[in-house]
Amino acid sequence: MRSGAKVAVIGGVFVLMTGGIGYGAYSMLGDTVGGDGGTRSASESSKVKTGPPSAEEIAETSKGFLDAWAAGDAAAASLLTNNESGSAPVLASYGEDARIGKVKITPGPAVGTKVPYTVKATVSYEGKSKPLSYASELTVVRGLTTGKALVDWAPTVVHPQLTEGATLRTGEASTPTIEAVDRNGKVLTKEEYPSLGPILDTLREKYGESAGGSPGIETWIEPADETQPDVNLLTLAKGKPGKVQTTIDAGAQAAAERAVKKYAEASVVAVKPSTGAIRAVANNPATGFNAAMQGKQAPGSTLKIMTAAMLLEKGLVTANGAAECPKEARYYTRTIHNLDHFSLPDGSTFTQSFARSCNTAFVKLIDDVDDDSALAKEAREVFGIGLDWKSGVVTTDGSVPEEVQGEAAAQYIGQGTVQMNALNMASITATAMTGTFNQPVIVPQSLDNRQLAKASRSLSPSVTQQLKTMMRATAAWGTGAKAMASVGGDKGAKTGSAEVDGQDTSNSWFTGFSNDLAAAAVVQTGGHGGDAAGPVVAEVLRAGG
How far apart are CA 495 and CA 506, in angstroms? Predict the structure, then answer.
């Protein structure tokens, strides 16, 4: 916000340039002086004139008003209008708030009752000066009660862009838009990276004052309606943008922007597992709502990363141990089946069930877990889900409510009441890679020393290694193989298809990693995870992995 501070009147800054009969002589005109300069009788002067103002009245009234205004005498000028109380503060603010002085007003020939004129003046503030010029016009009307010729008051008389209730001001402008830079110092703009628009707005609002920038000096019109933007008329001195360092990688961000544009509605986030640094955030459409970081929806089978971690921690499975994968499994009133009702042969390993995204292999183990709150605890205690993340911008931090019976079974495969977004799933993948939750951040913690969220415990090295083994298998020969084929390095993945009530086609989810980069994406009504969301993740991993 601009300062809007009022300042003292500058004495003697207005200079009368128009000459002739000035505003001070006006009291001798009108009702007491005849048009030819002769003195009228008392009876003549007491008679209220009617009808349109004469050409002589128009000339005299406009000249008296413009002379008084130019001389900085707001009180005298306002007396020559048909709205003294409304015009006086606006005319006074011309010198007081707007700091406009050395005013020269040059009237043009009257057109009927209208008198056009040009204004040339100087705006001065704290040693900075700049010329200001513009054109406007006034209209002379006859006063309803006095019969005098008066200026028909409107704010546009003072400036053509001035509206009712608005104020002309000169002073320190709001600090310029911050210059947000990526991790290597490249400037990030919403023009080049549309998805960053709402993020950059938040960073400017949150860190603009402490980003080292300095405000400029401007003359502006401040509207009466605070929801409307100020109208800048003149810049006396430019401000210096503040600089905010982000964790974004421009190359990964560019890839993310390209990838989501291939679908009508898609989101993707990339995170560096070893630090939690967010490398890319993209949405299509790139609207004011940052769905990638604030969305809430079921993530489908990508959540099996978390479910698998919980089962491994409890010793109910091992990556290479046998796990049943029948066509369907029932838990209380809920019957869960696999895609196209497939099954795996007896003796198949848990890694095979994970890589093929077998739902029933997970659901059949609920009885053995014997704790309906186990998944909710795993989410919070290990993966940091539901904690108060302080990334630097607003985020929704995921939710795995405690459920029972059939609803608990749905949660095991990422359905039911589980709520996630691309940021949450990228973080879950990152935690699976390192074994420890590193809260995602988009600006360094050192910027404001904010308290980051911390999970209460880490995964054991054995569980972490097994999770990575299963995700590597998914990327090598499982449901993520096609999407991840073009990705190099140490890589892993997990696919997901989330069924949503009212949709004929499920939402496509995919999460994966390559070296020290994890990414997750969702494509609305995209179908199988590897078909739509998979290529989005792969493109980002190729750019930043």
Answer: 13
Which residues of the chain fall short of a pLDDT of 50?
1, 3-45
> How far is 394 from 404, CA to CA, in rounded Å?
31
Cα–Cα distance measured from residue 237 to residue 219, given in angstroms and rounded to the nearest whole number: 10
How many Cα atoms sit within 13 Å of 460 on the Cβ side?
9
Reported as a single tens digit per residue, the pLDDT across 1-12 is 454 433 333 333
pLDDT the model gives residue 470? 98
Place of tokens 């009237």: 107
Q: What b/e string do you get for 396-434 counting C-beta neighbours within 10 Å, with b at 16 or more? A: bbbbbbebeebbbbbbbbbbbebbbbbbbbbbbbbbbbb
Non-local CB neighbours of 353 within 8 Å, separated by 6+ positions: 323, 325, 344, 361, 362
Q: What is the pLDDT of residues 470-526, one digit of tens each?
A: 999 999 999 999 999 999 999 999 999 988 777 888 999 999 999 999 999 999 999
Q: Do the beta carbons of residue 279 and residue 400 sit within 8 Å?
A: no
246 contacts: CB under 8 Å, gap ≥ 6: 180, 181, 182, 183, 188, 203, 392, 442, 443
For 185, counting Cβ atoms within 10 Å of its Cβ (0-12 exposed, 13-18 middle, 19+ buried), the class is exposed
Peptide bond into 444 cis (omega under 30): no
Which secondary structure element, helix H or strand E, spans residue 467, and what is its range?
A: helix 461-476
List the structure tokens of 509: 């989810």
